[in-house]
Design brief:
The protein is of the alpha/beta class and 311 residues long. It has helices at 13-22, 46-54, 68-76, 92-95, 118-124, 160-184, 216-225, 292-298; strands at residues 2-7, 24-29, 34-36, 41-43, 58-59, 80-84, 102-106, 112-114, 129-136, 146-153, 198-199, 232-236, 239-249, 260-263, 268-271, 276-283, 290-291, 307-308. Strands 5-2-1-6-7-9-10 form a 7-stranded mixed beta sheet.
Amino acid sequence: MRTVFFGTPDIAVPSLQAIEALHEVTAVVCQPDRPQGRSSKLVPPPVKVAAEKLGIPVHQPEKLNDGTFEAWLKAQAPEVCMIAAYGRLLKQPLLDIPTHGWLNMHPSLLPKYRGPSPIQSAILNGDTVTGVSIMRLVLEMDAGDLLLQERVEIGENETAVELAQRLGILGAELMFKGLRLIEEGNAVFTPQDPAGVVECKMFEKNDGQIRWGASAREIHNLVRAAQPWPIAHCELGGEVYRIHETRLTDGTAASAPGTVEEVLKDRLVVSTGEGRIAITQIQGPGKRVMNTGDFLRGHKLDAGATFTDLH
């Protein structure tokens, strides 16, 4: 089928590659290149990089609703448009263009976690199961009728980055199946259950702050969910430290939350509001991310030192 693909980050790349293999992708639409790093060098989004390798024309509109983009999309004459983590809302005139509508890949078990952070929210909330939904794109965010849905388990130590990679591959398989169902005239869409709607919000920098009075599991979930941004963080000695990896550990906390109870060869065992947690990757102020064992070889840190909430 003739299609235009909309997507921006890494999680959308497998879907583009899967669809392009057997269908005519006339163009890819993604967000503009953005400045990154201290040099503010413009960096293209992953979907743009992938599209150029596939030889597909790329369009990166700054404005979607001034009529120019609408005319451009009509000229592509898409039978169906595919969208995965594009990152911008589309208005009805654009939704009306493709003959067979839009298919949207969302990395959650809709209607749970409608919104911009379904993967991070699932991990942060301690969910053990999530999934991918393929739905029809409608004006209301993530509210379209469902075509396909598949569940996966979340690993106890799996980060948002790792889970996004898995869901991206699963999403590609389901997007491909969905497109085939439409092509064969066998697509059956099911309305979402309004009673099950849970909305999630965009992660902000302060969402990465560790509250040491929380339980060890809650802090472990935060560390996993806050990747690749904003990274879980707290203070030690008045400076900000970032915690990149933790493990749940046995034992009852015998000190105030945030206190380093044990300094082991490869980890720091820290008390929390409920239980103890082991820090296995850490980043000091202005330093690179290090395994805790490497960190301890260059930094003296004794039992009794205390991590604190950000002030």
